[in-house]
Amino acid sequence: MQTFEIKEDFLLDGKPIKLISGAIHYFRMTPAQWEDSLYNLKALGANTVETYIPWNIHEPIEGSYDFEGLKNIEAFVTLAKQIGLMVILRPSVYICAEWEFGGLPAWLLKEKGIRLRSTDPRFMAKIRQYFSVLIPRLVPLQITQGGPVIMMQVENEYGSYGMEKAYLRQTKQLMEEFGIDVPLFTSDGAWEEVLDAGTLIEDDVFVTGNFGSHSKENAIVMRNFMERHGKKWPIMCMEYWDGWFNRWNEPIIKRDGSDLAAEVKAMLEVGSLNLYMFHGGTNFGFYNGCSARGALDLPQVTSYDYDALLTEAGEPTEKYYHVQRAIKEVCPDVWQAEPRKKVLTNLGSYPVNASVSLFATKDKMIKAQQTMYPLSMEEAGDGYGYMLYSANLKNYFHENKLKVIEASDRVQIYIDGEHKATQYQETVGEELTISGQVAQKEISLDVLVENLGRVNYGFKLNSPTQSKGIRGGIMQDIHFHQGYQQYPLTLSEEQLQAIDYAAGKAPQQPSFYQVKLELNDIGDTFIDCSSYGKGVIVVNGINLGRYWDIGPNQSLYCPQEFLKKGLNEVVIFETEGKEIKEVVFSEQPIYKKVTD
Fold it and tell me: Domain Glycoside hydrolase 35 catalytic: where (predicted)?
């Protein structure tokens, strides 16, 4: 059985070792992709793989746990060991990772006033319950028990959020109580304030940094911080940023491969590193995160390509070879090999077979919840996707004022089935003028609210805006309207199977489009969304994620594991009134040029 220790060096079986690691998130790709990705990391010259563990995918409903398929962390770690890689796990309840709510589950928000990432007893009780299920699964994977896991994270970039050491200590104690005995660490930016606030160095918890350049300068900051606390630990960058994430309506961010290689070389000369990301993957479903910039929330795209060493689909990039050569220059004895390549496929185009308006089929899909005042998405459902609020307003037979109070994130308002306005952040709550039809006593109101993704980093984690849907109400004239039907639209398999495509077609309204197609051969592919507006694509019951015509991404990645030989079903939920005529597959991703 091997041993791993942190003294003045990292020691594997008592011998110094430099950790050369890469981040691969098991939950951002299919299990069939894991092996190629892990092999290519090993072929790069790495000896370790690192991954976060997102709380919200493993406990999607409070008390209900899921570790199957792409959520099978134990299978991923076991495969890494078979390929010859050590493993660093980050099971902290907050992960950032450009992931929905930084990995925190939406159901936490049902607890009014809960203080996240703190010693709030309600929050710590939820962590205890989650860890009581998660940690026992990880214990046998530790190097102390013959597994490949050498380190685990207590909290992630806590110094960029808080300074409550008691919270960090209670989290550490829970991990140890449930059986973690490998070295623990924290990771923070490499400057004094965040290291001081976010570490547990006084409790002998190893300190790592997160940065992507100025390697030697950042190493000096970290070394000085450790020495002031009497530590002579090795230097490690836990997130060496080799690319960056992307947001809607912003240009794709790229990093030059030779520039990265020079910085990687400099980092390896002074310590160890974990390349973030080695293979980014995809934010399938509704799990994309959101940035906070001042008052604005800026949702991130479905693709998590990250301009990493492997593309979203897993193809080695030029950057891969630049970094591979840099590793060899500093560590000439590492094993390296040619990486495995990826073949992408154009599967052709297929016509839409049927379509129906959401408003026409809503009662077939979802049992409406009737209340006097609107419920938030967390109160009425699981907190993800969309919420449709329907109401009948009194027709006063002259123009009336209407406004939606306190809603997140994107609000589309329909009067008698006709689109009246789309409001988003800066304009939610603006007053509209409405009027009903002359022959009707009531006005039909439908409000579709989309959760674009909760913030994953910074001061807004505890903001009321992280509760999605309508929190305040809807006002007609100057009074709050009472009486709503609410439809949580999560695009679950059960909901999709209940769509009645014969209920009524109305392309100008939010609509479902069904494509049935026969495939003789399957392969990794992209669905071309460049002629669509905004919405979601579901392939054989699996939600590929969001598309949006504002760019920069104009396609969605579809791994071959989501397809099958024979009959396939593609369902597109389009919200912008663009009639969809066909599904087009492409052998490459499609982008729209966006300028700042």
Answer: 10-329
Rounded-to-integer distance, Cα 364 and Cα 590, Å: 35
Cα–Cα distance between 192 and 173 in angstroms, integer? 25
Here the tokens at position 224 are 């000085």
Is the CA virtual torsion 251, 252, 253, 254 positive or negative? negative
What's the rounded mean pLDDT across residues 356-381? Answer: 97
Rounded to 10 degrees, the C-alpha dihedral 406/245/488/568 comes to 160
Please identify every residue annotated as catalytic: 157, 239
Contacts of 559 (CB under 8 A, 6+ apart): 29, 30, 32, 33, 313, 524
pLDDT of residue 425: 86
pLDDT in tens, 194-247: 999 999 999 999 999 999 999 999 999 999 999 999 999 999 999 999 999 999
Is the predicted pLDDT of residue 1 greater than 80, yes or no? Answer: yes
| Class of 16-330 in CATH | alpha beta
Concatenating the DSSP letter of every residue in 367-399 gives PPEEESSPPBHHHHSSS-SEEEEEEEEE--SS-
Beta bridge partners of 279: 24, 310
Mean pLDDT for the chain? Answer: 97
Answer yes or no: same fold for 16-330 and 349-355+499-586.
no
Q: Exposure string (b/e) for 519-535, b if CB count within 10 Å is 16 or more?
A: beebbbbbbbbeebbbb
Q: How many CB atoms lie within 10 A of CB 386?
A: 26
The beta-strand segments (E) located in 456-533 are: 469-476, 479-480, 484-489, 511-519, 525-528
Distance of CA 417 to the CA centre of its chain: 33
Burial-class residue 7 by CB neighbours within 10 Å (0-12, 13-18, 19+): exposed
Contact (CB, 8 A) for 262 and 326: yes
Query: Measuring CA to CA, which residue among 95, 83, 93, 74 is closest to residue 26?
Result: 74
Domain limits of the chain? 16-330, 349-355+499-586, 367-489
Superfamily (CATH) of domain 367-489 = Galactose-binding domain-like (2.60.120.260)
Q: Residues 6 or more apart from 117 whose CB is under 8 A from it?
A: 93, 94, 123, 155, 158, 161, 162, 167, 461
The Cα 343–Cα 303 span in angstroms is 18
Is residue 343 within 8 Å of residue 434, measured between CB atoms?
no
CB atoms within 10 A of CB 82: 11
* E strand map for 76-234: 86-90, 149-156, 184-189, 206-211
Nearest Cα residue to 302 out of 587, 60, 544: 544
Q: What is the CATH number assigned to the segment(s) 349-355+499-586?
A: 2.60.120.260
Distance CA 238, CA 198 (A): 14
Residue ranges with strand state E in 395-462: 400-408, 410-415, 418-424, 432-434, 442-450
Q: How far apart are CA 543 and CA 523, in angstroms?
A: 18
Residue 43 in contact with residue 35, Cβ under 8 Å? no
The Cα 469–Cα 596 span in angstroms is 30
